[in-house]
Design a protein that fits this description.
Radius of gyration: 25 Å
Oligomer: single chain
Number of helices: 10
Strand content: 5-15%
Strand order of the largest sheet: 2-1-3
Distance between the termini: 42 Å
Order of helices and strands: HHHEEHHEHHHHHEE
């Protein structure tokens, strides 16, 4: 029997149990033992399916995407940054929350938290090199955090990575994207006007618009789609076509 058939058997109605399992106490016991074993198999299959589905969903945002979101080769300062998806852990309570934030914001928080400073320079040309060295230190600190989980005790650092959107906003955005496949999302993201951009562009006020934009970025990163925001309009763009 295939696993899907076993799974369907889990939901058999009580009146569908063969009469031999419901006749009398003596004859019922062996049948109930067999039914219990089948039920245990179904439970294990359900647990396996749930674990597999969860692992597949979590694996869509990879360390490689995280690295790319943190640093683009040859770019020290950008006005069109890529987003990264991290976990923020409260230093006092231990509570955790996933957040999508622009990569430079995370590096700025690391600079404040770990007191990463640019060394003294001797010339204008040396400034560029010193800045690159500082950025590399911050990137290495970010990449070294297990499971991309960060604890910031410095208030300035915490403010730098505080997500603009609420959990409720993220849930709302996930619901909108739930019925869309990757091809549809990429097509909508590359269009000047689309249902995807209207999720945040239709909001009144810059703060609400930014909140929904960042929530959309979060939902896209969860699907393994690397996304950033533009430097003029602030609209989302896809790094990978």
């Amino acid at each position: 029997m295939r696993w899907s058939e076993r799974l369907a058997a889990c939901f058999v109605a009580t009146d569908e149990i063969p009469p031999s399992t419901r006749s009398d106490a003596l004859s019922r016991q062996p049948s109930l033992i067999l039914f219990s074993l089948d039920l245990m198999t179904c439970v294990l299959l359900l647990a396996f399916w749930f674990t597999l589905a969860t692992a597949q969903a979590e694996s869509r945002y990879t360390q490689q995407l995280f690295r790319r979101g943190l640093h683009e080769p040859g770019v020290l300062i950008t006005t069109a940054p890529l987003f990264v998806l991290i976990t923020l852990r409260d230093a006092r309570t231990g509570a955790e929350r996933e957040a999508a934030i622009p990569g430079p914001f995370l590096l700025g928080a690391i600079e404040s938290e770990y007191h990463v400073r640019m060394r003294k320079t001797t010339s204008h040309q040396d400034v560029y090199k010193a800045l690159a060295e500082q950025q590399q230190k911050e990137v290495q600190i970010a990449l070294s955090q297990p499971n991309r989980t960060f604890v910031f005790r410095n208030r300035r650092a915490r403010n730098n990575v505080e997500p603009r959107y609420t959990r409720a906003t993220l849930t709302e955005v996930r619901r909108v994207l739930a019925g869309r496949n990757r091809k549809e999302i990429l097509a909508a993201a590359t269009a000047n006007e689309s249902w995807l951009h209207r999720i945040y562009e239709s909001k009144k006020g810059a703060m609400d618009s930014f909140a929904y934009r960042d929530a959309v970025a979060h939902a896209l990163l969860e699907r393994g789609i690397l996304v950033g925001h533009g430097d003029v309009t602030g609209g989302l763009y896809i790094a990978d076509k």
